[in-house]
Write a structure and sequence with these properties.
heterodimer; A: about 230 residues; MetI-like fold; 9 helices; elongated; B: about 220 residues; mainly alpha
């Protein structure tokens, strides 16, 4: 048995083949879930970050969500709401909110006090301080939050295939049903590759953001977040 | 949706067994990872640039989805996919990836002045490491331990899709038969176990490192 046989078969890669279709589906799930999560988490994170009451609430939230097995949440949601794509995306987004929220709150509240004070002294309004000082300074952390969220969603979208049939996880479910290990192995390699590429790409973006925010310092380390 | 209590009573024995299995499958990898991460973290810190490369690679390893690792591992280990060893090895890999950074960050956080004072007080390099640097690095290490333990407990379930997943088997079985009771029981027990483990580690942290409590208050 050659484990690479599925990956090596050109028919699986051609325009209408399984791999491109599933890869695009996976990317679409991931992008829409992260975007949806960001729309909720960025404003909420800014509010929490500016209120100065972030630490207990935010650490509690991230531990709480980390404790939830994504398999259980996903299957429960699908069982209650049905297998529609929208339902899957919403569950994925729910899991992506905490890393983004935590990072935005930490970034905004951690922005250099002297810079914020100087901006106020120059006569900036609250909104201007946020947009021109706190947000650019928070950006490296925001990107690292998006990075954790994206990696998490790529992983959980794989699990989603066991409930809905879409995305690269489909290679795992089909391979399992047909007792076709090379197909499962192909799914594993592609999902892992996608996660690593997403991690590297957002890591690069974070590096650029750090260079802009603090030209002479080293990039901030991404906070650890669990894979699913 | 309401719980079927008679199912719960009828299967209490099996549920208890799976709960125990879940705890062991999640916690043993953490212990193994501590033993690996302590020397590796120290080496990373001493190695300078090479150490930074190791940390970056571990970061990428950590980003690999668990399902992918669980499918690929039997090939490397020569095990069958149903073997619990796959799950244990996968979770050990993730735990090491996080804890090496915790160990390195923790040791790096020890102030140079403290290290020099210890040397001046006659500590040999090894005794200084064990008696001064490691204890002072413990708060950071505990933070990493809590992250790793909680996420391992949540991750065990996903293994039910391709192998042995303890409480995840209840979740999967419930979904497959469209019977919500086992699903909810598996989900709730897994979350409860994770929060309990987190609380235990927090108490252990407070109990063994009383000086960190004074600083926080």
């Amino acid at each position: 048995m050659n484990v690479l046989s599925y990956l090596r078969n050109p028919a699986n890669w051609s325009g209408s083949g399984e791999i491109p279709t599933l890869l695009l589906q996976h990317l679409a799930y991931t992008a829409s879930a992260v975007l949806l999560a960001a729309v909720v988490a960025v404003p909420a994170g800014i509010l929490i970050g500016r209120s100065g009451r972030r630490s207990t609430l935010v650490t509690g939230l991230s531990t709480g969500v980390r404790a939830i097995p994504s398999l259980g949440l996903l299957f429960l949601a699908v069982m209650l709401l049905g297998t529609g794509t929208a339902n899957i995306v919403v569950v994925l987004a729910v899991l992506a909110v905490p890393p983004i929220l935590t990072a935005v709150a930490a970034g905004v509240s951690g922005a250099d006090r002297e810079a914020v004070g100087a901006a106020r002294a120059m006569g900036m309004t609250d909104l201007q301080v946020l947009a021109r000082v706190q947000w650019p300074l928070a950006l490296p952390l925001v990107v690292s939050g998006l990075r954790s969220a994206t990696v998490q969603v790529v992983a959980t979208a794989t699990v989603a295939a066991f409930a809905s049939g879409g995305g690269l996880g489909r290679l795992l479910t089909d391979g399992q049903q047909q007792d076709d290990y090379p197909q499962m192995f192909a799914g594993a390699v592609l999902v892992a590759g996608l996660a690593v590429v997403a991690d590297l790409a957002l890591g690069g973006l974070g590096w650029c953001a750090t260079r802009r925010a603090r030209p002479r310092s080293t990039p901030a380390a991404a906070p650890a977040f669990a894979p699913a | 949706m309401s719980l079927d209590w008679s199912w719960l009573r009828g299967n209490a024995g099996e549920i208890g067994l799976l709960l125990g299995q879940h705890a062991v499958l999640a916690v043993l990898p953490v212990l193994a990872a501590v033993l690996i991460a302590l020397p590796l973290g120290l080496a990373v810190l001493r190695a300078g640039r090479a150490g930074a490369v190791v940390l970056a690679v571990l970061g990428l390893v950590h980003s690999i989805p668990a399902l992918a690792l669980l499918v690929a591992l039997p090939l490397l280990l020569g095990t069958r996919m149903l073997d619990p060893l796959n799950v244990a090895v996968a979770l050990t890999v993730y735990s090491v990836a996080v804890l090496v950074r915790s160990v390195a960050d923790g040791l790096r956080s020890v102030p140079e002045s403290v290290r020099e004072s210890a040397s001046a007080a006659g500590f040999s390099p090894f005794r200084r490491l064990v008696r001064v640097e490691v204890p002072l690095a413990m708060p950071v290490l505990f933070a990493g331990l809590r992250v790793v333990t909680v996420s391992n407990i949540a991750l065990v379930s996903v293994a039910a899709l391709v192998g042995s997943g303890a409480l995840g088997q209840l979740i999967e079985r419930g979904y497959r038969s469209q019977f919500s009771t086992p699903l909810v029981v598996g989900l709730v027990l897994s979350v409860a176990l994770a929060l309990l483990a987190d609380a235990v580690l927090l108490l252990l942290h407070r109990g063994t490192l009383p000086w960190t409590r004074a600083r926080r208050a």
